[in-house]
Amino acid sequence: MSSDDEREERELDLTSSEVVTKYKSAAEIVNKALQLVVSECKPKAKIVDICEKGDSFIREQTGNMYKNVKKKIERGVAFPTCVSVNNTVCHFSPLASDESCLEEGDIVKIDLGCHIDGFIAVVGHTHALQSGPVTGRAADVIAAANTAAEVALRLVRPGKK
């Protein structure tokens, strides 16, 4: 194994503080981007505008990092901002010409991702576009999805298939 291969192997290991820092930085950016996107989710807001704001924020924040390093470090959007409404399960990132808007009572699923040097952080969030508590079928669906995610998470352990 050449020294370049050894260096590459070491860089990808979580025992490297540099790798952990890149993951943490990507996670901080993606969480702030999520807060921004949620704040933009209001009745009559165009979905394409919300998605563009999320992606722009990620590009801007990652663009401010690692500017003065010798080796060019790739960074930016790892997964485009998606705002999926009601029956659209996920991954709705509309074209610029799309006129779809949010409406009061919509259930919105937001997902987006950021990377620094290929180290990716992604986030997903469900948001109800209404004041007051969510009730009825919408509440049941959100609770069921949350329970399914919790069950799946508990099954993820070393050695499991």
TrEMBL record:
Q: What is the protein's given name?
A: Peptidase M24 domain-containing protein
Q: What InterPro entries does the record tag this protein with? A: Creatinase/aminopeptidase-like, PA2G4/ARX1, Pept_M24, Pept_M24_MAP
Signal peptide range: none
For this protein, the record's PANTHER family field holds: PROLIFERATION-ASSOCIATED PROTEIN 2G4, PROTEASE FAMILY M24 METHIONYL AMINOPEPTIDASE, AMINOPEPTIDASE P
Query: SUPFAM superfamilies recorded for this chain?
Result: Creatinase/aminopeptidase
Task: Pinpoint the Peptidase M24 domain residues.
Answer: 22-160
Q: Which family does it belong to?
A: Belongs to the peptidase M24 family.
